[in-house]
Amino acid sequence: MEKPKNNYGYLKLPEEINMFKPEGNTEVVFDIIPYVVSDPEHLDNKKYSEDAVVGDMWWKRPIKVHRDVGESVAICPTTFGKRCPICEYASRKRKEGMEWEELKEIYPKNRSLFLIVLRDAGDCEVDYEEGEVHIMDQSDFLFLQNLDDEVQRDIDNEGFPDPFDGLSLRVYWKGKKLGKNKYAEATKIDFEQREEQYDEDFLKDMPCLDDILIVHDYKELQALYFGMEGMDDDDPEDDDDLEIPEDDPKPAKRSRKTTKPDPEPEEEEEEEEEEEEPPVKRQRKTTKPTPKKKEKPSAKKLECPVGLRFGKDFDEYEECDTCKIYDDCMEANKALTGDE
Ligand SMILES: [Zn+2]
User: How remote is the CA of residue 86 from the centroid of ligand 1, in Å?
Assistant: First the structure.
């Protein structure tokens, strides 16, 4: 039996908490546990101001992640409402006419972090401790979208992350392979009565998912991504004299990748993740169920391809000039401004 991992690229895990990584062809039961939001830039709050409010409990932490950053993957600063040199590079490339097939390798991927208590993980190769809290970091394409579909199918289940009155999830993970990469997709999710619920004391000890994210600043990320070989990224002094030409940075790693998408060491691959990636629809609050509000459909259909706020930041940035979803964003913007 393998041991579960307790360190993980862009996360600084609390010592006592391990990762849960879904494996193919397993059936796993777990509870999703909310945490207290600390980040005012939380992406769910940017989407719907009543969700994921600082100080309130919320059940997931969305992040955007770039590949090929140095030897690894890194969180896109737009996750925290900041500028990102890689997204900016992608925008320039798009203006120059780069094909989406290549661009999508540069743009960040959507993932979500969850605190989960494993109830039954007996099928897994890894020897997980059942009853313990783990962190699951999964591509939205492989889990969250399916979860949302299941909830839409029976809206009575939408209170599943409620710590005091929630439901367990029984997830059927199917193994998939793309090149050398193996990953697991949630093909079916059943909701079940929990064996036990949680209490305030339990929740008090939950780590804050906003606080475990490793954030690189703009220059650091620029240095890591644009292939400054042999550079020690632990030495920020060196970063200061780095100048990446504004017009056409030559990312050593990128140019290799863009001509021939070769299998990356990253374990997951979201082959169907396209610009028109379906949006993750909102779930209602976990602790204070509120009646579903009617929302402008246009405001939730799409996401900004460069990580700005869809609808809200309409036509405010250079990137907007050549955006593929300019018209949709304009419509959403009209809806928003008409509303406020
Ligand atoms: Zn980015």
Answer: 5
Same domain for 168 and 182, yes or no, is yes
Q: Retrieve residue 65's tokens.
A: 């992640």
Alpha carbon of 221 to ligand 1 centroid (Å): 9
CB-based burial of residue 5 (10 Å sphere; 0-12 exposed, 13-18 middle, 19+ buried)?
A: middle
In a domain, 99, yes or no: yes
Q: For residue 325, what are its two tokens?
A: 């979803």
Whether residue 2 lies inside any domain: the answer is: no
pTM: 0.70
- 238 in helix, strand or coil? helix
- Confidence check: pLDDT of 294 > 90: no
CA of 83 to the centre of ligand 1 (A): 8
Encode pLDDT of 69-109 as tens digits. 888 899 999 999 999 999 999 999 999 999 999 999 999 99
User: Tens of pLDDT along 18-44?
Assistant: 999 999 999 999 999 999 999 999 999
Q: Tell whether 278 and 298 lie within a shared domain.
A: no
Residues with CB under 5 A from ligand 1 (ion): 76, 84, 86-87, 108
The pLDDT mean for the chain works out to: 79
Domain extent at residue 74: 18-291
Q: Ligand 1: distance of its center to the CA of 255 in Å? A: 17
Cα–Cα distance measured from residue 89 to residue 121, given in angstroms and rounded to the nearest whole number? 42
* Residue 32 maps to a domain: yes
- Total tally of structural domains belonging to the chain: 2
- Contact between residue 6 and residue 17 where contact means Cβ atoms under 8 Å apart: yes
Same domain, 338 and 256: no
